[in-house]
Amino acid sequence: MLRPTIYCMLLLLSFTQFGFAQVKKGFKYLAKSNYAAARTAFTKHAAHPVYAPLAHYGLIKTEFEEKEPELSSIYKMAEALYEDAGRWEQLNLKARKKLRKKFQFDTLNIKSLRIELEQKALTHYHDSSGILNFEKHLAVFVDTPSVAIFQQREDLRARMVTWHLRSLRTANYALLDALYNHHHDLLAQRGSRYPDHVYSFILDAFVKEHTYRNLSTFVKEQPGHWFSEACWSKEAVEVLRQDSIQLALNYLRTYPYFILDDWIDLHIERLSNGGLLLDSLDYAPTEWAQLAELRLGWELTKQLRTGKRLPTYDANLLRYLNLTAPSKRGYDLFRTALASYQRRGVWDKAIQLLQTAQKLYPDVTPPDCDKRYSFYISKNEWFKTALEIFQRPADGFSIELLPSLSQQGREELAPVFSPDGQSLYMALENGPTGLDVFICHFDSLKGLWSAPQKVDMLSSERDDLPYSITRDGREFLLAQGGKLMMSTFGATDWQKPFGLPLTVNEFPWVGRATLSSDGRCLVFEGSGNKKQAHELEPPFIHLYRMFKGDSRSGWSNPKAITTLMVEGGEERNPCFGPDSNLYFIADRWPSLGQGDLFFSKPLDGNSDVEMMAKSGISFDPSKFPKSDYTNWAVPKNLGKEVNTLGDEKHWLSIAPDNSRAFFSTIELSKNDESELYSMALPAISKAEKRKILLLPLGSIGQNLTGFKRREMILQVKDAGTDQLIAELRPQGELRFILNLPARISKIKYQVIESSKNPVALTQWGEYTIGTASLQNLPTPQLSQ
To answer: Pairing mode, if any, of strands 735-741 and 498-499?
Structure first.
């Protein structure tokens, strides 16, 4: 009776041993890269009651190693590995123990291969792969990754989100939905306004793809959107769903304060084919009069859009506003018309329009509505600010595109002037390495900039952005991979950048930064301290400053520039001018738009000097800078010729002679990509014109070592007063770059060996400064 049982046991044992041998062969073939034989061996036991998990693992590993897999193949392999993990879980403890003993195989092997698969998958992505594609990746690789892979994931996710933020106007609904609802943390880290800024595009994107008739779907999918929560939006959705002009007209009469009444207006325009299908016999007199008002608005909008304004345009515009106030659609047309006057510099009509609209659109709380939209509560203050700015005298300059610097198909970002103003650094997209630093040179004979050339020493494998150069040309501030770096000028060129202190580079988010012209102050935009990094709503972006002494590493800890802050606002994109003016963008100081360009000046005062004076310590005040950039004058708006009614995102660089600024922005571009523009500096900035004087080293200090030559000092005095006005070191072993106020007409100058060894290397020379912004100093006679 025992023989059949013994027979079955022997058969099972031989089957098990055969399975062990076959799977073992499969891994031997795999080690020898005999993929066909390995696949055959693993396939034979893919259904084995014990070795199936190991066989499937071998099949996946064979496919992975046989050839460079495509992304879709990697996804399938990852899903197969999850299924294999399920097979492992179904094994009994005895079978698991056998696999561990004979093959050292368990879930760690599956997890390790899954890590290899994800590492390979991550190499297939780049900034423009699209966050929707990357979300599929996250759905496939759902396990908690290793620290290294998590960091790689987060880096890719951040870069993709940044890439999408450059083209929000053309983004589709699904993408905007993903950005806001799945990547809110990255948007918030860029600034408190970014999530709402992204969300502001989602409604238009939905309507573009699904039309007004399906707004009920939008309300269900986006219950937190302001439109879904707006007063009277439920009634508006119902009106927009139907083809009834009378129903839409009644809605406009019933709810004159609806925040999106321009959609009802547009709905009527479409139903009537721009008024062509309207017949007075079909409407009551009040409805026909109402339609006449709407048609007037359509005609005015058409004239604004085409630029073909009729002689009656100005009068009809004022009439339309009087007829439709206090409606939001009338207010929107007023803003569009004001922006048109502003672009054309028609200041008298702009002021008249502002004064009229100020009376027609006071702040008001609509009945039966508890929402506090800016349209209801913030117009009074805005009209007051806008009138004050528009009534200032115009400077008469214009903002101009720089076509010779335009790179077709590539955005131009972060312009930075060289200290002599004859070269321009910028960041350009450069394939898989992302943004790299490039340089262009100005040809004064042709009046054109040369084609950009990559600066290898300042470019890395991650995004590189030039920020600022000191006026002596010795230090270059830039960002590499989101970290602030500094490069110093060697004998003839820039050296490999080194990181700034962790006190700044450990900030949760650090954006644009700038150096004062003397290199003593660094101002950057940051998001607060590290403890706040993972809050749902991180701190507002503010400007911070660091100050240093003579040593390059002696930076103070970052401190917020509180005198430039306004509660609830942000300050962004700082840029120092050569006269220490600080230009920046702020959204809560009195502004024309959501964020205007302002400037401020540092006030005199040095905390070290004050401390020593109070302590009775003896010191020489002339050895300390007058300002440590702690306190600043009240910021002033740069005015109507610089700031628009929109959101300025200019990335400024001020020319060394303080005559103009170059900036990159997407807001003015017709190609929907960042381009470079030029503008003069408004008179209100009181930007003092400057002269740049170059003194080549030539034979000066030729007997010194290279290091000592770079430590030579050019001393400069005002020839009229004999007062020392500048001491500076050379730019490497090339030249001294002297930047002086234009009011100084004549100077005396000499070169000494160093501050520690003030031996005169030259005699005192004299030079009368000419009218050109860039001049060469004659080499003074060498000392004997």
So the answer is: unpaired
> Rounded to an integer, what distance in angstroms lies between the CA atom of residue 662 and that of residue 417?
9
Q: Using the 8-state DSSP alphabet, how is residue 525 labeled?
A: E
Q: pTM for this one?
A: 0.77
User: What DSSP character marks residue 457?
Assistant: G
Question: What are the phi and psi torsion angles at 652 (to 5°)?
Answer: -85, 155
- 627 CB-side CA count, 13 A: 17
More confident residue, 195 or 54: 54
Cα distance between residue 269 and residue 255, in whole Å = 18
Specify whether the CB–CB gap between 161 and 183 falls below 8 A.
Answer: yes
Residue 551 predicted with pLDDT over 80: no
Contact assessment for residue 619 and residue 313, using Cβ atoms and an 8 Å cutoff = no
Query: What whole-number distance in Å separates Cα of residue 736 and Cα of residue 472?
Result: 7
- Tokens 């400077």 -> residue: 395
H and E: helices and strands count for the chain: 26, 28
CA end-to-end span of the chain: 121
The dihedral built from the CA positions of residue 276, 281, 287 and 293, taken in this order, carries a sign that is: positive
pLDDT band at 1 (very low <50, low <70, confident <90, very high): very low
Query: Would strands 521-526 and 746-752 be described as parallel, antiparallel, or unpaired?
Result: unpaired
pLDDT tens-digit profile of 2-39?
454 444 443 344 444 445 677 888 888 888 899 999 89
Amino acid (1-letter code) at residue 13: L
Angle between helices 107-122 and 71-90 (to 10 degrees): 170
Query: Could you read off the pLDDT of 669-685 as tens digits, one per residue?
Result: 666 677 888 999 999 99
Which is it for the CA torsion 208, 669, 193, 179, positive or negative?
positive
Q: Which two tokens stand for residue 317?
A: 């515009």
What is the C-alpha radius of gyration for the chain, rounded to an integer number of angstroms?
Answer: 34
Give Cα 422 distance to the centre of its chain.
27
From the list 56, 115, 51, the residue with the least C-alpha distance to 84 is: 56
Taking phi over 0 as left and psi of -120 to 50 as alpha, with beta for the rest, 480 belongs to: beta
631-640 residues labelled b (16+ CB within 10 A) or e (exposed): ebeebbbbbb
Q: How many residues does the chain have?
A: 784
Residues above pLDDT 90, as percent of the chain? 48
Q: Which amino acid is at 605?
A: G
**H-helix or E-strand spanning residue 375:** helix 374-377
The structure tokens listed for 755 are: 């501050």
H/E/C letters for each residue in 490-541? CCCCECCCEECCHHHHCCCCEEEEEECCCCCEEEEEECCCHHHCCCCCCCCC
Q: Which has the closest alpha carbon to 780: 724, 682, 699?
A: 699
Task: Give, in order, the Cα–Cα distances in Å from 581 to each of 24, 517, 576, 584.
Answer: 74, 10, 6, 10
Residue 664 is predicted with a pLDDT of 84
The two structure tokens encoding residue 33: 């890269």
Q: Quote the CA–CA distance of 757 and 23 in Å, as a whole number.
A: 79
User: With b meaning 16 or more CB within 10 Å and e meaning fewer, what string describes 174-207?
Assistant: ebbbbbbeebbbbbbbbbbbbbebbbebbbebbb
Residue showing tokens 């103070």: 556
Which structure tokens are listed for 591? Answer: 């502004």
